[in-house]
Amino acid sequence: VACPTLYAYLRKSSPDVPARLLEYDERFGQYGDDFAFYDYNQPEALPPAMKHAFSIVVADPPYLSQECLEKVAKTVSFLARPEGSFLLLLTGEVQKDRALELLNVRPCGFKPQHSNKLGNVFRLFTNYDPVDRLGGWDRSDGATI
């Protein structure tokens, strides 16, 4: 969800891995059937075949607002399988508590860097402990996980 750079990387490095790109920018329509138009203001306005169809969902909300994260969380719930999916959320650290509340995701030790030098600390959150990958869950704040 809104991760065109990740999608392009996956297509190049692992072309056999099935992936879909949900993105507002219709220039990504160049990816054909792998592209679906996505507007976070309409979190479930997606093709019906996508409902509960994904075992892995990666989301990078376009804004750091509470409203945006809440709507993207609705999209993630729409896409994820009811029996469980791996969720990866890329967003600002300021969203830590809200992300836990909405998606039950926790920050990982891995801290993504943006080439645009964003003013906010960016974090990767997951709903599973990646253990030795991605730095595992970040336990530096003493939280019990």
UniProtKB/TrEMBL annotation:
Listed GO MF terms: nucleic acid binding; protein-lysine N-methyltransferase activity
Entry keywords, A to Z: Cytoplasm, Methyltransferase, Transferase
One GO BP: methylation
Entry GO CC: cytoplasm
Protein name, UniProt field: N(6)-adenine-specific DNA methyltransferase 2
Matches recorded under InterPro entries: DNA_methylase_N6_adenine_CS, Efm5/EEF1AKMT1, Mlase_EEF1AKMT1/ZCCHC4, SAM-dependent_MTases_sf
Subcellular location: Cytoplasm
Cytoplasm as UniProt keyword: yes
Main location: cytoplasm
Taxonomic lineage of the native organism: Eukaryota, Viridiplantae, Streptophyta, Embryophyta, Tracheophyta
